[in-house]
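Model the whole thing, not chain by chain.
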Amino acid sequence: MEYLSGGKIVVVDLGTSEIVEETLEESLVEEKIGGAAITRHLAEAHADGNPIVIGTGLLTGTLYPATCGGIITAKSPVTGKLCHCPVTLKVALEIQFAGFDYIVLKGVSAKPVFLWVHDGIADISDAADVWGKDTWTTTDAWRKNMGDDLIQTMVIGKAGEEKSDCAQVCLNYWASGDRFGFGKLFGMKNLKGLAFRGMGLLEIADAEEFIELSLDMLEDLKESAFVGKQGIGDLCAAIGEQGAKEWLAPIVHRHSACYNTPYPSNTFVYIDEDPQRVTEPEQAEPGFLVTDLYGLLGFYKLNLSAKDACGLMRECARLGLDAATVAEWCAANGKQAAGDIQAALPGISSQATISGRGIFSPWCPRQPIWGAFEAAAQDGEQWWERRMAVAAVFGIHPLMAVMAPELSEADLLETATVGTGITFNQERLNGVIDYLLAD
Amino acid sequence: MAIQIDALKCIGCMACEMACGYHRDDGFALLSACIVTYRTREKKDYFGVLLKREEDLLIARPEGTEIKRIGVEEETDSSQEADASAKPMLLREACDLCKDMDLGPMCVRFCPVDAITNVE
Ligand code: SF4
Ligand code: SF4
């Protein structure tokens, strides 16, 4: 695969430590386009090794707006289904430039390890020093040991090591869309996580045309219904939880975006620092980046203060626990006081409630956010699954997929065609979506 | 013409960095960009944008913009440079305002929130 791609797949056998590099054949891209369709294909091809497959979308890491997305595909150890977890922030960007489009991790390691993926090399590295440590300590240790503060990580905490059903794979220090217990699967494989760093270059088949299309889309998005809104608070309000927005507001510091994504969906709250502060705080860890809408709402509904709720979300992320499932468990078990919840966290092992078919993560709202989508009115569930599938194939941020009808299938197909020199049409995309949505 | 950056408007998306990388390398890459989002103080939520110019470094911090003359204040620059990326800012080419690009300054065009402007 020549364009918009590192051109390589790496297959890592954690049981034997064998690492095999394969070429990403153009024929596979012609057939499956990219992202979740190829991770699913690889998961099926290596099914005997109960694999975790990590990948990027066809447009990930480009200048086409909202192309921050990557994917973790695996059979959930909790639901037993093959499903896909979105990878956001700047993690998928780093995967894209680290040299591999797809990473297959199969088998079980005899001892704790992590995969260090950098500049076209994948190394199985010892994780004994960080086993038992939380996600924050681990990310800090990997950045320090490798001497690069821009390393991006996928990492589990104690919850994954101890195989909790609501263990989550975290991104750097923050919550992810893993509501499938992939953190538990990492733990079952003795895999503490992955660290990514890369300086690659993606070539473009028709660069000028690709840039034109990207700028046209950006101009359209600057007129979109989400403009003027920002952060997790406005997302709460959009799904009918205006009170949560007001409750959170006093501790909001700033909003930030995932790579090249026009809507800043991540909200940093200062828990131990003045939220009005603009200079660099002296404290090393003054707050938390809220990336999970339903985790936040779950704690909000427990009638906690915003500070206590965000403090508990920070603890969940450190332990590598899915905050939304934890909040659900607290509600079901009558835990309402912050201290009681904090004390209970290390022992919680509860299954997330996943509505629908559980192929894509319910981390992303199942309804249009501000944007007008005709198809959503006809069959909301079908519309949502299709938008999730499209986002996961091309590497579009899932939230943008439910926010911006401008990011149409036709535009994505045209941009992918211009970028790769491969002709992708609607029929091909329909086939890929059918494949992804098939049980 | 000069590039101005409003770090408080910035949402840290890195589009400017990739746009500049494209201008330098005709592909998608970050290594040669002369505008970068500094983002290593992730746990503190302290981020902004650095621009390498011919004579100086423009550091757009949330609390305001600072200009550091190259060659005069390097000793205090080291932490900022380390922030930028594996390739220190001082080794990168300076901003040429994308003078060979018909589309104009690429970082300005691709910033989704108009945090970067090109002023006469
Ligand atoms: S004007 Fe052009 S060269 Fe200067 S920082 Fe922006 S993209 Fe880079
Ligand atoms: S493109 Fe704009 S918002 Fe994004 S990092 Fe650059 S200055 Fe900030």
